[in-house]
Amino acid sequence: MPKLTVLGVGGCGCNTINQLSHANLPPSVELVSVNTDAQAMAATSSHARIQIGPQTTRGLGAGAKPDVGCAAAIESAQELSQQMQHADIVFLTAGLGGGTGTGALPQVARLAQELSKPVIAVVTMPFSFEGQHRKANAETGLQALLESANAVIVLPNDKLAEVLGTKVTLLNAFKESNKILQDVLFGLATTISQAGLINIDLNDFISVISRQGRAAMGVSNLKADDDLVSAVKRAMQHPLLDNIQLNQAQAAIVSVVAKDTIELSQYNQIGATVHEQLPKDALVIIGLTINPDLESELEIMVIATGIGFAQPEIQDPIPAVNDNYINVHNFIKRPALHVPEPLQTKYDVDNLQIPTYLRQQKPPTH
Fold first, then answer.
1. Choosing a second label site near 49 at 20 to 30 A (CA), which of 38, 177, 250, 311?
2. Which residues line the annotated binding site for GTP?
C-alpha cells in the first residue's frame, strides 16, 4: 500500500496535523509535526515529531523571521530527509507569513525533491488585516516553495469570511479550511490503494503531479437529484482556494467512487466536464471504483496541476561589439548570422604565407 507522509510545518501546520489526527485517516497516512517551538510541538498529536533547529532557535521558535525558519530546516536536514525517505508521496502544509512555516517549508520541499518524492504543498495566506509585512513574507515564501514543490494549493484566509460568512467561529473556519486537505488525503489513499473498475495507480498519480506549478484540488458528493456537472465543478474549483485559471492546467487526475448503479452516460459526462475546464492537450486520468455501500450516489475527487508555472523564455539581446563578456549558452541558441563573402584585399596572399621576420629581411647585396 503506498505510503503518504504529511508534514505540518510551523504553528499553523502543526494545528492542521492535530485536526487530521482525529479524522480516522487510512493507516497508509503518516502525520509528522515539524516546528521550531518545542513547547507548542509537545502538544501536537502525530505519529512523529521533529524539532528543527535546536541550535539555531534553542526551541524558542523563529520569532516571525523566515530566515531563522530556513536556517532551522537546514540544520535539521538529515532528520527531515530520514522521515521522508520511505514515503511514496509527501504532503506539506503550513501557514505562510510567519517565521517557521514560511522559511522552513521551501527547504523541506527541496529535501523531498532531492529524494525524488512527489510533493504536494497546501498553504494558507495571511488575512489582509495582518499587514503588508506579513503578506510580503508569505508571497516570498510562496515563490520559493513553487521552485521545489510539484503542486502548490493556496488557501487565502480572506476567503474564509467571504465564503463561510462573518458569523462563523474562527475555530470552525480553520476546520473547514483543513478539511480540504483531509478529504483529499482520504480520497487519494483510498484511490491508489484499492483496485478499481477503472484503476488509478501510484504512477498515474505521479504522472499528473510531475507538472509543476499551482494546483487545484477538491472533493464533492453527488446526492439524489443533484446536478452532476455542478458536482464536478465544485470538486475542481473549491471556493476556499485561491482564484486560478483551470484553462492553464497541464494535467488532472479524477477519482470517481460510485455505487454499482452508475450509468455510462454519467461517467462520460464527468470526463466531458473535466475536459471542458482544461486545455485540449492536458493529460487527464479518470478512475472509477465501485462501492455498493456508498452513502451518496457518487464521490468525485479532482486534482488539477501545472497551473501558471511556465514562464515565456525571454531572449537576451545580441551583445554589442564592445561587450566584455558574452553568455555562451544564450549565444549558441541564436540562429546563425549571415556571413558576407570575404572582402577583396590588395595584399599578395602568397606573400603572407612567408614568416614576417623573413619578409622583412633586406635582400643580400652583391
1. 177
2. 99-101, 130, 134, 178
